[in-house]
């Protein structure tokens, strides 16, 4: 079997998996920018919103940072994979960028 992966035939956001007589390109984990294999522990560098923790790229919980990220009144932070979003608190709705009581 020829190791086609030695020639790095895959794109930057993929890793190469050598198979018998061929190869396939597999997508890197969402937490990675470039990778050497499957999973968040094989990242070359971590994607934005992720930090290297115990050799793995893990999500940063922006909602638990000391500095508040959702600063508008009656707004809650919701952590998402690699990011966060600001939503109006329960009983409030977004009216032109302001959370007003419903």
TrEMBL record:
Is the keyword Metal-binding assigned to this protein?
A: no
Q: Highest taxon of the source?
A: Eukaryota
Query: Any keyword Calcium?
Result: yes
Residue ranges of the EGF-like domain? Answer: 59-98
State the encoding gene.
Creld2a
Q: Which family does it belong to?
A: Belongs to the CRELD family.
Q: Which GO terms describe its molecular function?
A: calcium ion binding
What Pfam families does this protein map onto? EGF_CA
Q: Which UniProt keywords apply?
A: Calcium, Disulfide bond, EGF-like domain, Glycoprotein, Repeat, Signal
Q: What is the protein named?
A: CRE2A protein
């Amino acid at each position: 079997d020829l190791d086609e992966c030695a020639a790095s035939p895959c794109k930057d956001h993929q890793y190469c998996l050598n198979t018998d007589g061929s190869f396939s390109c597999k997508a890197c984990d969402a937490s990675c920018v470039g990778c050497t294999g499957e999973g968040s522990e094989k990242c070359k560098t971590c994607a934005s919103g992720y930090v290297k923790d115990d050799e793995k790229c893990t999500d940063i919980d922006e909602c638990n940072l000391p500095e508040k990220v959702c600063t508008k009144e009656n707004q809650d932070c919701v952590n998402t994979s690699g990011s966060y979003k600001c939503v109006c608190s329960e009983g409030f709705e977004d009216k032109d960028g302001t959370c007003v009581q419903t």
